[in-house]
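STRUCTURE:
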């Protein structure tokens, strides 16, 4: 692996992520099997891609997946309204959807997307997120499946970026202070 000196501390290791994704995949399998349905996984680009890939290895159902890009996130603070940059290619009328997110922070993104998908006629919408930052929530959004709860710190790795960097790290960490020096946060 390329040598990375920008991470100040590791919050969640590669092994922890793998173990937790397996647990969540098993739970998701059981929950949907119990109602005799298989969800369409809708992953929000780009941060959720590694989590989606890890999760689907452990979901023992005839699932499909699709992508949406709805970000309006620049730097480390959420700004403005949510825009649809890429919409789904799949029709979702009557479909059970499992949204896959990297992190639920204020909850604004996921809340808006859930409402949008329900409005389009989805039969049900559930949320699986790798990370949850409940201390930052501005609404009552609760994910159905949560990998790990994290404190109010800006994290990178396993899909999550800082100005598009660090997404490919196999673990989740916090950047050293000097990595933000002279850059907007
Ligand atoms: P929300 O709408 O819940 O405030 O933010 C959702 C999006 O903001 C996440 O899907 C993620 O892309 C981005 N985000 C929120 N917190 C963090 C963080 O700590 N690190 C990174 N890299 N992105 C974050
Ligand atoms: Mg995201
Ligand atoms: Mg981002």
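SEQUENCE:
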């Amino acid at each position: 692996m390329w040598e990375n000196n920008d991470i100040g501390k590791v919050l969640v290791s590669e092994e922890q992520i793998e173990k937790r994704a397996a647990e969540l995949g098993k739970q998701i399998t059981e929950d949907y099997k119990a109602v005799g349905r298989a969800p369409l996984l809708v992953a929000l680009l780009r941060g959720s891609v590694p989590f989606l890939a890890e999760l689907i290895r452990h979901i023992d159902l005839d699932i499909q997946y699709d992508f949406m890009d709805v970000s309006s996130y620049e730097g480390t603070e959420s700004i403005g309204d949510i825009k649809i940059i890429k919409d789904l290619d799949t029709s979702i009328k009557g479909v059970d959807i499992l949204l896959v997110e990297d992190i639920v922070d204020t909850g604004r993104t996921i809340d808006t997307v859930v409402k949008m998908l329900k409005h389009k006629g989805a039969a049900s919408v559930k949320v699986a997120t790798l990370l949850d930052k409940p201390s930052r929530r501005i609404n009552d959004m609760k994910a159905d499946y949560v990998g790990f709860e994290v404190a109010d710190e800006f994290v990178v790795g396993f899909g999550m970026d800082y100005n598009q960097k660090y997404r490919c790290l196999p673990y989740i960490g916090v950047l050293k202070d000097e990595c933000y020096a002279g850059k907007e946060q």
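REMARK: Helices lie at 14-34, 49-56, 108-119.
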